[in-house]
Amino acid sequence: MTTAADRRAFHARLLDIGKERYHDKHPFHVMLHGGRCTMTQVRAWVINRYYYQSRIPMKDAAFLSRCDDPDLRRSWRSRIEDHDGGIDEGGGIRRWLRLAEAVGLDPDYVASTRGVLPSTRFAVDAYVSFVRQQPLLEAVASSLTELFAPKIHSERIAGLLEHYAFADHEALAYFRQRLAEAPRDVEFGLAYVLDHADTREKQDAAAAALTFKTDVLWSQLDSLYSAYVAPGRIPPGGWDGREGLLGERASTEAAE
């Protein structure tokens, strides 16, 4: 097939990628949302996911540096503000560090990115490089995992509240905020991709970019599962379950 699919069919193709490949189906997330993760596993997830969160505004800054169109820059720059926040407060990164503190981690330790699994770094850095180097259409298409994010955020909020003592409104502020931010972002990104993927070749490239992004997200969870669930082989440099814990919890759990 060499002709471009119509807009509706191409949209359906993108949605099918999420149905088949989005990381809400990963065994680690099933464990997390079902209350079957130990606190060590929860903390390992918070530490490693922070690395991804911290690189999102860097990825978006790299994207903006390539945009000649000021309208596109104006529409995209709110993503950086959403994650970095203002000079003194706000932003998804700060909200994620509040989650880190709620689960018993020192936010400064988490922000240092010490203990991040090597494969997490590799996957996230590959995503930043992809957005920096690939055509703008593919860079935008790679962001469309946001199409599927509201569902996973809703499930995560419900699951964490039900199963974990640390979960409260403050701890889960990141996910609640993304329920408002992600639909706005994806509305723009989806329209951009549907408008600009006007040949079969461009549609294939956009679909491949979205597939690549689902691989980035899935591989991060593969790393966590391998290191902290089964068979539990933590690679050199990975968090050992003790470093970076807060206060009395650190000494108590280190002694167990």
Automatic annotation (TrEMBL):
Pathway: Cofactor biosynthesis; pyrroloquinoline quinone biosynthesis. Keywords: Oxidoreductase, PQQ biosynthesis. One of its GO terms (molecular function) is pyrroloquinoline-quinone synthase activity. It catalyses: 6-(2-amino-2-carboxyethyl)-7,8-dioxo-1,2,3,4,7,8-hexahydroquinoline-2,4-dicarboxylate + 3 O2 = pyrroloquinoline quinone + 2 H2O2 + 2 H2O + H(+). The keyword Oxidoreductase applies. Its EC number is 1.3.3.11. The keyword DNA damage does not apply. InterPro entries: Haem_Oase-like_multi-hlx, PqqC, PqqC-like, Thiaminase-2/PQQC. Ring cyclization and eight-electron oxidation of 3a-(2-amino-2-carboxyethyl)-4,5-dioxo-4,5,6,7,8,9-hexahydroquinoline-7,9-dicarboxylic-acid to PQQ. This is Pyrroloquinoline-quinone synthase. It comes from Sinorhizobium numidicum.
